[in-house]
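Quick start: read one record
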Amino acid sequence: MSEAHKGWLDGLKPYVEKASIAAFMLGVSSGFPYAMIAATLTTRLAQDGISKRTVTTFALAFLVYNFKFLWAWVVDGVRIPVLHRLGQRVSWMIVSGLLVIAAVFNLALAEPTTSILYTAYAAIAVAFAGATFDIVIDAYRIEIARPDQLGVSSGMTQYGWRIGSTASASLALLLSARTGWEIAYMACAALALPAVITALVLGEPERHREAAKRVSGLAASLQAIYAPFVEFFSRQGAFLVLLFILLHKIGDTLSQLTVRLLLNDHGYSNDEIALYDVGIGFWALLIGIFIGGAMYAKLGMKRSVLISLVLMCITNFNFALLAQAGHTNIGLAGAMLFENIASGIGGVTVVAYFSALCDLRFTAAQYALISAASSIVGRILTGTTAGAVVESLGYVNYYLFTTLAAIPGIVLFWLMMRAGLIDASIGTAGRGRR
């Protein structure tokens, strides 16, 4: 066997390990509830003749995902009767999976034209169930992987998420045209099963750690709530790490949620957007995820995260160039190619770093807090100020502004590297055999 061939096989090996395949299956189940209340529900409501103003308010259901840290401690600290014999993570995977299926069935049976309020409650229920499922899935993904597998497993989860969300959205559209929305939603509910089956087959993660001290009653509940936060903030540099989590994605979020406005104002047709944004973007993202996993394995956590932050910053500058160039398909293709590759790389490396920050006794609660904090500032700023800033500055200056907004996160991470705070702040999920 040639050295090149052997090197290629060695590069693929991490992607076929048990933890990586499991992470892919978990991602499939994680992606579908989100799709059920995203474009799929929007299409259903539009086809039922619901007004645009009412349809757009359903986007508020997604806020549930940003507040999942409020109840994530339950997954760490509450034992489920009888099922707990299977393990804390496995038992919660079963219960949360069944909760998602029930919520999707409930949304399937809702009739928007008869009761739009009930439909809204049903959508929120899917969001709550999906967010809870995500809490368990993230904890399980982190705990089944060794520290050196966190990068690849994060990438495989994103592959699965993209396929799960795309498959459920496509399946719902295809079946709804033939059997109605009720059957379409119920069929999609089966996509909760890959995660549940994975947990039943693999069992409780070997790296899962129960909290050492257990008490009962109100004291137990209070301990489960505050212990994850006390542990995290007792680490050296914890407040700077939290500041980085809050800041690092602001520029990226501000730019991403306004790109479609730019394309519309520059006269791109739906066909051009479908081909150059959605089409090229989909495959570029998958390539970026693969590169991110390989980069994390070869360069290590710190260098790979720093490089991905720089790439995401350059992405914002590319959008400024696109805005300056006007309507150009070549420019759009190039910008979307670079943006999605950079997003794929950053999604893997940064998610792996955030996963490594968790303490294995409080994986669910700590990762839920980290993932929520990583996007909430950018979403609030985008929702409250982005449109006004675009109108005031124009697209070119706006994207130059988002480029500048990405720099503090890069500088802060570099300073933390120089001071040794990255290594000092890593939790037990990121320590051990590499």
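The chain has 21 helices and no strands.
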